[in-house]
Amino acid sequence: MTVPTATVMVYTQKNGALVASPDHLAVEEPLEIRLDSPEGPSTLSVTMRTPGHDFELVTGFLLAEGVVDRREDIRRVAYCMDPELDAEQRFNVVTAELTVPPGRASVARHVLTSSSCGVCGSASIEAVRLGGHPRLPDGPKVSAAMTSRFPGLLRAGQRAFESTGGLHGVALMSPAGDVLVLREDVGRHNAVDKVLGWALLDGSVALSDSVLVVSGRISFEIVQKALRSGVPMVVAVSAATSLAARLAGEFGMTLVGFVRDDRFVVYAGRERIISED
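The chain above was modelled as a monomer; its predicted structure follows.
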């Protein structure tokens, strides 16, 4: 599916003059996430996102935020056909029909998220702390050379970034560097949700043997989403926050940032990186 872009006229300064030319911008629109569960209908969240792969985004969000724990908890994900919505807005509202009552996260908070920050605050920290989530298993092992290559493989697949320069990219890869799925979005957290949602819906990928590669920095919530999905390793081109590093270390996740050329920084989980020395 092609990531939507919008063409606008912009003015660029050249030789002291403003010259008009067309430019391509990443599309950003709100997405309302609704639940239909045995407890009744409710609105869970509104997030700003790049339209496309919306069902994957919602599925990944529900898993990452503890609303559901497995694929079987979701009966159906669909655009809302509520007659009170106009035709355009119907594609900005998605309802997830659950087979079970929503988990603790939906009870703890209803959230308004932005494309830049995701779901923030102490409630999400406590949701992880109180969830009794086990430490991640030991595998997989990844060579230092391959770790250095992950961001380049991600960048090579970011088609929409080439035309807009305004989209984050996230990919799920094998330890050998095979790109299993790649998604782009104006929000890093949305792109992560789309990737993890795809994996949950597809059901053929072993998340416990995969690497999550992100185009920006590593926040607490990206680590939280990877942890909830069982992904043992997160790699990024930029830095990790202190809370992200602490959470990764607590649950046995490998966290790698500042991957540039043949250099990188390992914040946690050094034992999964196989050095050539």
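Confidence is low (pLDDT under 50) at residues 109-125.
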